[in-house]
Predict the structure.
Amino acid sequence: MSTPRKISKVTRLPEFKRDLARLLKKYGTLEGDLTNFLDYGLKLFHEKGLPTGRIERVAGLGFVEPEVYVAKKVPCQAMKGRGARSGLRIVWAWFADEGRVELVEIYLKGGRQVEDKARLRKLYGEGK
């Protein structure tokens, strides 16, 4: 993980917005769940350098910057009784020099097991 730095800006990429809109149809609490994650999990991880839940750097992308992370245990209130075992995953790019976060992808583990590396390479790969 990079040196802790204050988050100055969080943006949602169009791909993320599409993923979220699709999931919101079934899980109405996702907007609030996402806000909680951004306000607590993401800030603790990047601003304080504290490991929170299960956050891992995505490996094997073929580029170093920006750093790309996935949170694998994000609680979802709409999934009653499952809490952090909801299978909700959030992928973001961290631009440490700017203190900027780009939300790239949100998905449920049941639909697939790993993040869309092709999407990540297209957005941040060589020549970008």
Q: What stands out?
A: The domain at 9-124 is CATH 3.30.2310.20 (YaeB-like fold). The CA atoms of residues 47 and 66 lie 16 Å apart. The radius of gyration is 14 Å. The chain has a mean pLDDT of 85.
